[in-house]
Give the backbone structure.
Amino acid sequence: MGEFELIRRHFQRSGVALPDQVALGIGDDCALLQPAPGHQLAVSCDMLVEGRHFFVGTNPASLGHKALAVNLSDLAAMGARPLGFTLALALPSANDAWLTAFAQGLFALADAHACPLVGGDTTRGPLNICITVLGELRPGQALRRGAAQPGDDLYVSGRTGEARLALELLLGTPWALEHAAPGTLPRLRERLERPVPRVALGRALAGLAHAALDVSDGLAGDLGHLLQASGVGAHIELPHLPVAPDLQALPPALQLDCLINGGDDYELLFTAAPADRTAIEAAAQASETPVHRIGQISAALGLRLLDAAGQPVALAPRGFDHFA
Amino acid sequence: MGEFELIRRHFQRSGVALPDQVALGIGDDCALLQPAPGHQLAVSCDMLVEGRHFFVGTNPASLGHKALAVNLSDLAAMGARPLGFTLALALPSANDAWLTAFAQGLFALADAHACPLVGGDTTRGPLNICITVLGELRPGQALRRGAAQPGDDLYVSGRTGEARLALELLLGTPWALEHAAPGTLPRLRERLERPVPRVALGRALAGLAHAALDVSDGLAGDLGHLLQASGVGAHIELPHLPVAPDLQALPPALQLDCLINGGDDYELLFTAAPADRTAIEAAAQASETPVHRIGQISAALGLRLLDAAGQPVALAPRGFDHFA
């Protein structure tokens, strides 16, 4: 199977209508998109490398889903509406069954967000998946990470930590094997391999919330980026952090580590004015996305973790660094 | 050096002003671009893999240049104005000298086209460079490959074949070593490793030429794609193909193979109405890009190569296929 045949067979979908924003799809030197009049364009790009971002032998349908999900999550964190994406794929060989499953996982998520594949590149090489996603939003409505204000409420969508526990179980880490309840891996693994990008919530928050980012490297580490960009500090009231049922059996220190240093959560972390609490609740309901108010932004720099008695808890925050 | 430090040191350029179309650059979940009112967006994406698209040990400055050049060439082939690009980079290690040179080659070309780096991703992994470029153009002005008309003139910019001869010399192919003049490699290698994207010509042709594409896989093979997309045929008058000085010593069959099956040329192949010959010449002059009229589009399908006497020449066209 040649390169053009591979693209035709797996990535050109003759029976599927392209959304209105696509003036020209796959097959020319460029794709052509027509953003809504006056809108800004949001662009993000993520590269997934085998053995680094996913295990050798990962289910290709999950991989197709996740490669797009992590990019849609960046659009969500900006408050943008998805327009389309490009896919560059390096493959050790043109494995038909692998490509069929990968495309299925990819397109199921793309269709759910009306975010079509508009172009890309395929080549032979060590397995590498690079997606660039494009979205649009009205000028002035973007959720920038530097826009947090002292006094803002601090929120997180969904819940964090399950992907981390799944990862530790798959790595065979002793504490995870010891404390995770039997039979939880399939459910936890779904959280690691099939993250749900919070696109609807992000769009509902655009122009309403102040700062936002998506939690990919751990809640504490990513919050640190938001605080630094905004020149502010924050506290988190730990009892307000939602704890997944599968994390409830963990010893407190390990549970907390999963919750705030987990990684691969793809939840939205955002701030908003206390006066907008009702509007934030309405945005959460309209987007059918659970949202928890977990703390507050302060003028004083630094991140403080507070226990149920309001006392500081020590825990070194750490995010994931690909070159550490 | 961590991932964030690597990005800060090599890819965030504090002293360089961003062009007006960039509302927000590197450092948030997404970059924000503001296309001109009413314009369409052109998007293209290319992935370069070490050992496949470039030799192990290729000069990193050349690599930075070429990775962006091949993407700008796609914009040129569409007639689009560059807006910005994202870069995803997988690196075996964070080699400071390599990154410094790579960034130098990349930014020199980016600056020449006012096409800033607006976002991306870096990770550890087998060397892989994936760039997605964004451009803008007026609706209806795109140079699509399916727009050739019977009777159109067929043009190519610059000249083809030198990159192919450079590649064969670097591979140590006997015919190349036998026939290439001594001392030509440095010059030829520049043509392989530092292609000049024909952005100014492409923009001058937008709304004037009919069909266009960029020649990356060999003139004959890429012309085949244009003909197929347009449902037409063509002939090329071989004596009208420009021959670089360094190719003139080659035996005729090898010379022809370089000219029409070369690959890595990144010249524009385009068609236009004979009534627009003066306008095409003006576009070539305005963009300071040599252009040659090499043949004509026909209603009869197929590609015919004609010699000086108008007699057909047999040569199997072939393009490069990454999965063949």
